[in-house]
Amino acid sequence: MKDLAPPHVPVIIVGGGQAGLSVAWELRKHGIESLVFERHGRFHSWRENRWDSFCLVTPNWQCRLPDFHYDREYGGTDPDGFMVKDEITAYLDAFAARTAPDLREGVEVRRVAPQPGGGFVVETSAGAWAADQVVIATGGYDTPIEPDYAGDLDPGIFQMHSVEYRNPEQFPEGGVLIVGTGQSGVQLMEDFIRAGRKVHLAVGPAPRSPRRYRGRDATDWLYEMGHYAITIAEHPDPVKALTQTNHYMSGRDGGKEIDLRRWHVDHGVELHGSLAGMDGTQLRFLPDLARNLDDADRSYCGIREMIDAHIARGGIDAPAEPPFARVWEPEEEPVALDLAAAGITSVLWAIGFRPDYSWIEADVFDARGKPVFERGVTAHRGLHFIGLGWLNTWGSGRFLGIEEDSRHLAGQIAAQMADARVGA
């Protein structure tokens, strides 16, 4: 008896987050059938991988899923606010209900294999499918990053990665060392301070941004200036854009900027340089705290200067702001710390994630394992990516840019499929 051919679908989308469902909606508008596989449940990372106090860092008006903007089709009433976790998932669920994708939850894609005659076999935990086109919408947050030397830490010290963090009550009594000062690290710092805990922070090279400046949210000014419309091809320093950590600030309590110097002065946060190693309870740091703080401030002031120049060019009536002033400078930079002596009982890793594309059998990755594409379209016909940072602009991979990216990609898929029909 011959083996039955796997069922065929024109487009398979791997990943049931906002990027995958946005592409499915845009494909439907082209009359193209798609099937979405999600190994957990829809919007899993928003429901399960965010902490209890999580809220957006960018204002709600930037939530612009295709044909479903927060302050238009969704009917949101606080465009300048910052949705908390449950509000975000409610918005996403409403989008899914409106677009009704063919979504198979709890199905893990284990292999995507190009076929000699074109198309792909997609092997899943629920069987195999054939597809003409495949869209990878899994994002870049597959594997939590912890350094190898984390294994050298005294086993009596509690460790956790931010992906598992929900609230400070998960941690034993005592001080906590948070490693990483991207958007996650600085917000978790505040969580512990509010809980009355002693916080030590290993400060990395992440830049920071103003929150409100000269009467408006800084992101409003940057959007008006066209800053977020700059493509990666137009960017003056694309390597920096692709590798730089996001600017840190917060949407909590209506939005605030984060100045680590002030958190040291006002809340007693102990600041250290980049973590370099561990041995038992002994930690080593690089002597780069002052440089990292200065670099973050340079980024902060640079954004203010861009806004000032925009206001001056346009003759815009906007309130003046006092010049930036540092409230604290490190007098010395100790490169060693004994956790036991400092009363630190926990380490919280907030240094990011790396993607896992080992299940994709196509030659579309560079030497570092990152996919190579032009606006999501790879050199291997029919294989595409969506929902990654700087797919095209800063907004790619965020709510702000997903409408444009998914619309463009759906158009490219439709064109490739039309070409295939003509050539058949």
Automatic annotation (TrEMBL):
Keyword DNA-binding tagged: no
InterPro entries per UniProt: Auxin_biosynth/cation_transpt, CHP04046_FMN-dependent, FAD/NAD-bd_sf
Signal peptide location: none
GO MF annotations, alphabetized: flavin adenine dinucleotide binding; monooxygenase activity
UniProt-listed Pfam families: Pyr_redox_3
UniProt keyword Membrane, yes or no: no
Keywords, ordered alphabetically: Oxidoreductase
SUPFAM superfamilies for this protein: FAD/NAD(P)-binding domain
PANTHER family named in the record: FLAVIN-BINDING MONOOXYGENASE-LIKE PROTEIN (AFU_ORTHOLOGUE AFUA_4G09220) (PTHR43539), FLAVIN-CONTAINING MONOOXYGENASE (PTHR43539:SF78)
Annotated protein name in UniProt: MSMEG_0569 family flavin-dependent oxidoreductase
Organism of origin: Mangrovicoccus algicola
Lineage: Bacteria, Pseudomonadati, Pseudomonadota, Alphaproteobacteria, Rhodobacterales
